[in-house]
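Quick illustration, no need to memorize.
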Amino acid sequence: MTSKLVPSNPEKVMVIRDVVPRTITTLSVPFFRFGRIKVGGRGTIVRLQSGALAVFSPVALTEDVKRKVAELGEVKYIAALDAEHHIFLGPWHQAYPNAQVLGPETLPEKRAKQKNENVPFAFVFSKSNPITTISPEFDAEFDWEYVPAHINKELLFHHKPTRSLITADMMFNLPATEQFSKAGVDANSGILTKIFGALQSTKGSAIGQQRTIWYGTSASDRPGFAQSVARINKWDFERIIPCHGDVIEGNGKGIFEKVFKWHLDLAKSEDSKRT
């Protein structure tokens, strides 16, 4: 099934781009949801001021990626941002065995059940045991929020020095133009891609994505999801780096507030009831 999701030739179709020179590098590749819908995939490398590297939602570890990593520094943190973004954890941990692996609850058990590579998790985020510190160098540069109410057990990180919000499936920004730019196909082609893209767009009122998140992603616990959204919204970010779709530059906070308006309103309503 994996062969239907990710490209067999990642070295030829990956876009390695310095979003912030010497600080944030994105690794953008084609990715097919359900093996058919073009949503794209993206790994993100953040170089801390200490020179350590934090890798979020790692994608294929090609020779070009290895060279880029060698230029930037030492991989010390590898994060699976939810229970779905873990396909390449094994190769990355094998190449950088001293890196600490971060992920959400349910993922270690899921990987064991699927008989994936044995990857030791240094930090497992859970609702019952909140993680408040990773390391001094990491804590100094990142805010994070674990969203257990998300259907995929989502982790979000805010890189404070660059005002960048790094996400997995919390929100999309389709079409995945950059991620399919070297694949020789239109990122918006195909009826299923067009339908899904309309539901995961940030353009206009973003009503499709609002409904998808409200009735789908957060349906099991909307109040809990809304409280997480409200905490994230307090962060001072202007850029959003999603796993699926193009990077949002400039008005990231405004787009976030538009997409999650219903949840932000719910959080305000719940807060007013408690006061």
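The CA atoms of residues 222 and 247 lie 26 Å apart.
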